[in-house]
Design goal:
ATP-binding cassette domain-containing protein; transport; Rossmann fold; 4-stranded antiparallel β-sheet; ATP hydrolysis activity; Alpha-Beta Plaits; ATP binding; alpha/beta; ATP-binding; 11 helices; 326 residues
């Protein structure tokens, strides 16, 4: 659905040149919720603004659907942009317009009749749960309600792609959860492809099916979220499941990280190790998280006893991954 190939964006010239994006390539399938994760200054917002050409890339190519967006200008570009909705961190609502008028604005630009605009606006506000706020002004809304208006406005033109630029970072955790669940529901019901920019790991954990990690304008890791979470060496996994570095172990102890997924996350594995193999087990750290709709966990443990190899073989026979560090 979205293909980004060798994308570069440089601001300034000569000694003052800053490379915001450095040879970025991504493939985002149709219907996917794809997250781009990175800290402030990593180039995330520049990347998403290049997708709809609000920023002109220095080089590289971007294809959305069957159109090479980077080759368009004028009316063809405006038409292509109408198929891409965008929601913003600070909502960008028109303060002098009511909720309904904000949502109707892109429909006015498209030239729809007043009756067609009213019908579409009513449908969209019901979709985002704001049918009672038709005549309210932005100043009368909470942050979460403002973002729902922003989402409704972004959907007004029936886009194939929804671009989300830090859309929840100005919201409290409970409101963030509700907005992300709304986006997940829209993705399922409408088949929307969502490109989601964020610096929050919780956002990726809740709704993203795939992720790319951006650092200093470069992609340093990308893949399916659940697959990366199961790899102890991945950056995503290490952020989700921080480990204790250089723990103080008992003499002769083995340091192991056990990775759980799906139903295995509910199994009493350590209880079995204690009873079946007469081990002493000291859990040093880790957690079990719900990532997307799958429970995944990593637990770091100190194992003490004479049957450690047998115990590790038993764990692997259960289909669990084990990484022995010491």
């Amino acid at each position: 659905m979205i293909t980004i190939t060798n994308l570069c964006k440089i601001y300034g010239q000569g000694d003052k040149a800053v490379k915001a994006l450095d040879n970025v390539s991504l493939e985002i399938p149709r219907g996917e919720i794809f997250g781009v994760l990175g800290q402030s200054g990593a180039g995330k917002s520049t990347l998403i603004r290049c997708v709809n050409l609000l920023e002109l890339p220095t080089s590289g190519e971007i294809t959305v659907g069957d159109q090479v967006i980077t080759s368009l200008s004028g009316p063809p570009l405006r038409q292509a942009r109408q198929r891409m909705g965008m929601i913003f961190q600070h909502f960008n609502l028109l303060k002098s317009r009511t909720v309904a008028e904000n949502v109707a604005f892109p429909l006015e630009v498209k030239g729809l009749s007043k009756s067609a605009r009213q019908s579409r606006v009513k449908e969209l506000l019901e979709l985002v749960g704001l049918e009672s706020k038709f005549e309210a002004y932005p100043a009368q809304l909470s942050g979460g309600q403002k973002q729902r208006v922003g989402i409704a406005r972004a959907l007004a033109g029936s886009p194939d792609v929804l671009l989300s630029d830090e859309a929840t970072s100005a919201l409290d955790p409970q409101t963030t959860y509700a907005i992300l669940e709304l986006l997940r529901d829209l993705n399922r019901r409408m088949g929307l492809t969502i490109l989601l920019i964020t610096h929050e790991m919780s956002v990726v954990r809740q709704i993203c099916s795939s992720v790319a990690i951006l650092e200093a304008g470069q992609i340093v890791e990308q893949g399916r979220v659940n697959e990366l979470a199961l790899r102890p060496d991945s950056r995503l996994s290490q952020a989700l499941f921080p480990r204790i570095r250089n723990p103080q172990l008992h003499p002769g102890a083995t340091l192991a990280t056990i990775i759980f997924a799906g139903d295995s996350a509910n199994e009493p594995v350590f209880t079995t190790l204690v009873r079946k193999f007469e081990l002493d087990v000291n859990i040093l750290g880790g957690s079990i998280e719900t990532i997307g709709e799958q429970r995944i966990g990593q637990l770091q443990a100190e194992l003490i006893g004479s049957q450690i190899e047998e115990a590790l073989a038993y764990i692997r026979k259960l289909g669990l991954r084990v990484e022995v560090t010491r």
